[in-house]
Request: fold
Amino acid sequence: MRSAGALLWREYRFERRMFWRNRSAAFFNFLLPLIFLALFGAIVAGHRNELDVIVPGIAGMSVMSTTFTALAYNLTFLREQGVLKRIRGTPLPSGVYLCGLALNAVTNAAIQIGIVVVAGRVFFGLGWPPQPLTLIVFAVVGVAAFALLGAALSHAIPSFESAPAIVNSVFVPVILVSGVFFDVKHVPGFLRDIAQALPLEPLINGLTGGLVQGHGALGSHLTALAVIGLWAVVGVVLAVRGFSWEARRG
Reply:
């Protein structure tokens, strides 16, 4: 029998091939955040303070879209189409299959962050990340938290037809209130408090520390890291408790 590592590698390669064959998924995972970066970057070009907000904000949004949004959609589709039920009846270990799905989303997030960093350097002159450790730590914790929350949200979606409405009803307000396109310090106090309690604004805060000169090393962002970690714990509990291999419809 093949080792679990070999099976996971084969499953991961299969998921990568399937992803690139899905043009709409590739567009929303890669091109859409870059379009936002190009548009807002062009608007604030030459204004360093605004660029220091936009680039980390788009990086944070990319993490959320490639993990939270993608996994919420994919797990709902696979469950409702009966794929998860059939997979469970095959010799492929269930854990290997689910890890393959998760690693595919993690890979997309890593590639997207890399693209945003390079674009910020090449097109907007922001320089390379001054605190790479801070960037890496927040990227890893943010990817884990949003992946788990995406899996948890999929359990609350009754059908794939309702998935776009439910996922976007969470995704759009969160990116708007969390300072993806503007400095969250300029919003009303109650909205700022909400943003700081959600995982995206602390993630953007940490990514700013890694990407922008003068925003502190990892030790100055421990509160933001703790908030994201708490959401990761919530995601684990909800993802495990609500998971189902069976379609909701008969």
